[in-house]
Amino acid sequence: MEGEHGFTTREEWQNYFQIYFDQIRELEEINSFQMNKEPQQWLADFSTKAQKLEKKYQEQSAYLQQHVYYFTREGHPWTKNVADPLLSFLYRYSTRFEDIAAAYELARSLYTFYETQNDPVALMKCDMVILSVYFFLNVKCLKKEIMELYQHAIPIFESFYEQLSEEEKSLGMSFYDFQSFITSEYVNDPPFLPVSRFFEEYENRMRMLHRFQAEADMSLPLNSVIPYFENHWTSSFLRLTIHLNANNFTQKQLHMQLSIARQLKDQHPSDESPEGYAKYQTLCLMLEYFLKEKSAPAVHQEIMNCESILPHKRFCTFEEYDDENIDCFNLILSCMLVLITDCPDCVHSIRQIFAHLLDVYNHFPSNTFMESVADINTSLYLIPAVRYLEEDKILPTLLQLTVYRQPQTLFHSVILSRCAKIVTSHMIDQHPEYLIGVLSCQSEAEINRRKDEILNFIETGALLHDIGKIHCTNVINMQYRKLVDIEFQVIKYHPVSSLKILQQIPSLHKYIGIAAGHHKSSDGSYGYPSDFDAVNRPDKILIDIISICDSLDAATDYLGRSYARTKTLSQVLGELQAGSGTRYSSHVVNLISDSPKLQSELEQFLLHHREDVCLEVYQKIKQSGTLQL
Fold first, then answer.
1. What would the 3-class secondary structure string for 384-433 be?
2. Which residues of 377-400 are buried (b: 16+ CB within 10 A; e: fewer)?
3. Residue 344 preceded by cis peptide, ω within 30
4. In this structure, are residues 275 and 283 in contact, taking their beta carbons and an 8 Å threshold?
5. Please, how many CA atoms are within 13 Å of residue 90, restricted to the half-sphere of its CB?
6. Distance between CA atoms of 420 and 548, rounded to whole angstroms?
7. Which residues pair with 580 in a beta bridge?
8. Nearest Cα to Cα of residue 602 among 588, 621, 617, 586
9. Neighbouring residues of 170: CB distance < 8 A, sequence distance ≥ 6
């Protein structure tokens, strides 16, 4: 029953949020990057998009005010008759809740309430909601927090298991799914676990799964995910050797895994279950390789035979999405990255599979869940393979990863690169001494002689400076509102993500300083990441230029950021001057302040040619599917 604030049944909460989710889908439609429009129509829509998004977001906030913000922001206390059905709804639909910020805000507020009620089961349910939020935001960045949550929730789940309803038990099995995913896919990210722990956790979650299967009504639709869990947890456990390095495992452990893989392969004949057969045959082959029973070239050939039987298809709607198919291609690509050390011919297979997966991810449907899947798979599988692409395809491919899922990041990076070239060109002409040390240049004469090379370098560095954002699309696409604290925490991690991406691609190592350091203050006293030293680097002046141009673009962007008022160049220059010598480089600030010509060029470009640049980028993408520089 609806009260003045909140509802007293799960159905009422569900109906309330269903209307809200419909509003979110309207936002997503406005925010989507549609390639089917004529350029001028696209530009007209893009020019008004920010205002439309802001209006819709204000409508959303008003909608949430009475029944959500009343409790979470105004500090009014929850009552159990309102909180219990709400938490029941959130627990049931945690992976389908389409507003990350609202889900997090509700779960944190309810967690505080249930702490006062001494209700561990309710706290466990709050853990599930927060776990889902962290999964959607950035698993790599939040691994420690995710592990702490399921390590808190699983003992509660097991202790109170007999008292839970079948729905609560079924949903609670997802705690083990988070555990399985984190420990198998993010095994090389801190915090680290000993190999023995992986085996213990696998045996425990399979014990709980078999217990549930023995006691539950497996014909219920809610329980249809359980066979998937069994398959997924086992295959994840078996691929630990691929992700972690087989040398960490004993011969006994490898033989145990091979025995499991062979049994499962026999249960999945290729003519009836091509994905199942390909997955477990691939795992068998890799374990045989690790046990030195087969050579890398032989394993490579047999795995690619498995790849050939898989359906090669796109998934343009959520209903078409086939997790098993995607998982097989991801597995095979990760195997190729291991085998290439002993079998150089794997490079051709890597490029073949990479091209297919890139096409798949670029056509994923746009919603919270699918965006997180694309982010995770891009991070785990595509990025490590980029280094093996043809040299001239590496940069366009990285940019293509942002095109369909984060167009705003791409536009920002292009505008920033042009802005940085303008500033750098003036610096070379007026103060070449500032650039000594850049690209190992030893004199002003060399700086002038290599001007084009330096300009090309900073252009590419600017295009790559935010590449780490491809790991947090759900946050980046929230351009129509300010970020909440947890989202900002994730965003602050993107320079680290950028650094780690570029570290995996030898030809791009030279841009690490720009990518990792552009959010540090010029004097190194603050900013993020805290442990990156951007001060004592030969490319420091380029980092300073990128940092200032980043601020210039953000402050003058009247197209993509509806949550902040656009500033004039003189206003921004005043802020730069106020932070000169600390936040901003005094060399760069003085260069701009002392040059009316440079100010005029920047003003013309940022405030009068922004639309032209966006239109140019759109047309290039429309013609070729990527940004060809």
1. HHHHHCCHHHHHHHHHHHHHCCCHHHHHHHHHHHHHHHHHHHHHHHHCHH
2. bbbbbbbbbbebbeeeebbbbbbb
3. no
4. no
5. 31
6. 9
7. 584
8. 588
9. 212, 216, 220, 222, 223, 225, 226
In angstroms, the CA 108 to CA 253 distance is: 41
Q: Which residues contact residue 43 at a Cβ distance below 8 angstroms, ignoring those fewer than 6 apart?
A: 611, 614, 615, 618
Domains and CATH numbers, the chain: 239-389 (no CATH), 392-624 (1.10.3210.10)
596-622 pLDDT, tens digit each: 999 999 999 998 898 899 888 888 887
Query: Is 285 in contact with 294 (CB distance < 8 Å)?
Result: yes
pLDDT at site 2 = 56
Question: Which pair of tokens denotes residue 415?
Answer: 């505008």
Burial 355-366 (b: 16+ CB within 10 A, else e): ebbbebbbebbb
Buried residues in 110-133 as b, exposed as e (16+ CB within 10 A): bbebbeeeebbbbbbbbbbbbbbb
DSSP 65: I
Q: 105 and 492 in contact (C-beta within 8 Å)? A: no
Closest alpha carbon to 152 in 130, 170, 136, 135: 130
Phi and psi at residue 309, to the nearest 5°: -90, -5
Going by pLDDT thresholds of 50, 70 and 90, the confidence category of residue 563 is: low
> CA 233: distance to chain centroid?
22
Neighbours of 435 (CB within 10 A): 25
Taking only the tens place, the pLDDT of each residue in 255-306 is 999 999 999 999 999 889 999 999 999 999 999 999 999 999 999 999 999 9
CA distance 363 to 405: 9
Token code pair at residue 287: 């374990």
Supply 580's token pair: 């000169």
Give the pair of three-digit tokens for residue 441.
């240049």
The answer to whether 179 and 150 have CB atoms below 8 angstroms apart is yes
What are the angstrom distances between the C-alpha of 458 and each of 63, 128, 170? 45, 44, 53
Of the candidates 336, 266, 338, 260, which has an alpha carbon nearest to the alpha carbon of residue 302?
336
Angle at 236 between CA 139 and CA 184, to 5 degrees: 40
